[in-house]
Amino acid sequence: MSTPRIPNDPFEDIFRANGEYVLEFKSSDLTGQAKKGLAIVTCMDSRIDPLRIVGMSAGDAKILRNAGARVTEDVLRTLLLAVHLLGVNRVLVMPHTDCRMASGTEEEIHQAIWKSAGVDTRAFEMRTVLDQRAAAITDLTRIRSFPLMPKTLEVRGAIYDVHTGQLTQIAEEDFQDRAANEN
Length: 183
Hints:
Layout (H helix, E strand, L loop, with lengths): L11 H13 L13 E6 L6 H4 L7 E6 L6 H13 L4 E5 L11 H12 L14 H14 L8 E7 L6 E3 L2 H11 L1
Parallel strand pairs: 1-2, 1-3, 3-4
Antiparallel strand pairs: 4-5
């Protein structure tokens, strides 16, 4: 069944490509389970190919994306589903270098959107970060301390370098140092 042609359709390329995809498509035995037990929280940046970065394929992991790879309430909700229903037993929080969300303060991002599009976004928290390591530690702690997550859930962080492809782990000592400083 083909999609009706709409004059000047901004999605024409999408549906044309899908038609080509369907011709080569072979259904797989994949289910909704994360075969390798992994969930990756990462940024929406299109330079990031999360499965390839960690040597996995479709069906191996759950991918949660948002601006800045932040652990928001919706990410926690989605992780709850993934952990309790979809076979996830480990989570990698993976922000990246050269991220627009790490390029300025909250106010600077709001001003950039105002200047670019004339849209007042101040009613939204953008969750910008000036220190990605510190923000990732906060987000990792948020997952680890969330009372509905199992204590056995493995949680790790790493910053992905979009220019080299390298993942740099956030060391456990960083958590311990931060906890000691907060007490």
